[in-house]
Amino acid sequence: MTGSPQYSLLARFIFQKSQFSRTPAKPKQGAFLPHPSTLKISALWRDGLSEQNIWKIGDSLGAARSKQPLARADFDAATVSEAKLTIEPDPLPQIPQHLNLCGWPNEKDKQKAIALELCARSTLIVR
Amino acid sequence: MTQSCPTFDTSLGLRYWPSTGVSDIARQIKLSLEKSLKHYLEPRLELLLPEIENLRVASDESQIDVDSDTISAATQFVYSLPRFGPIPEVSADPDGEISFDWIGPSGQMFSVSVNKQNRLAYAGWFGEKSRIHGIEQLAESCPQQIIQGIEKATR
Description:
The complex is a heterodimer of chains A (127) and B (155).
Chain A: E1 9-14, E2 20-21, E3 26-27, E4 41-45, H1 51-63, E5 71-76, H2 77-82, E6 86-89, E7 98-102, H3 108-120, E8 123-126
Antiparallel strand pairs in A: 1-4, 1-5, 2-3, 4-7, 5-8, 6-7
Chain B: H1 24-54, H2 68-80, E1 89-92, E2 98-103, E3 109-114, E4 119-127, E5 130-137, H3 144-154
Antiparallel strand pairs in B: 1-2, 2-3, 3-4, 4-5
Helix pairs in contact in B: 1-2
């Protein structure tokens, strides 16, 4: 699955200052790299959500690690296809828009190349 | 006649600097040159080395901890970096490796991850039709592909 008919806009929350650059305003590759044990990253459909609601969801997702998102990377479903990743819905009790980006390769250099592709095509929104 | 023939490379080169100098005076010249070079490089090292050391304690819960061997490899990588050009930003990857990121003014990006086996995984995004990625091994001097990637991202 590369997208959902009614959704096309995605966001990934960034919880660490070291994972984005303010000048130029861009997420860094570390913001997109998957954990080696899961090879997937968490994201969100943001279609139809207000800014306030997007950040509220970010706060809910960060509660588990006692962190608030400092920024987020906004991108679209076409970017995910171009990066050769897949979108797998992963609705959470209070967050039906939650999903995972799957299909990451095992090789670190290939992971980094994909992460850079996502960075290049994302818009950084600093909170 | 006194002759010193230091072998210049593009790395910081404070360690194991090879020289074919043959006399005492040549050795003194070499030491003097090393001393002045070290003085020039200290600000770069003073900035990067503590940042790397801090990654040991700054790891996020969702990440694998950065261990001492990785810090040691990352430190060695810093010594091998080109003497000139922008200083990279340092951070910890989710797998416990240490990343060095260069972001150019127009959004070009180059990144190198160092692991505890001294493996350098690099990737660069320089535009829609210009991307690279690959693997190199940590060595005394910085691999050419990595030097070129840094130059492409930051020029």
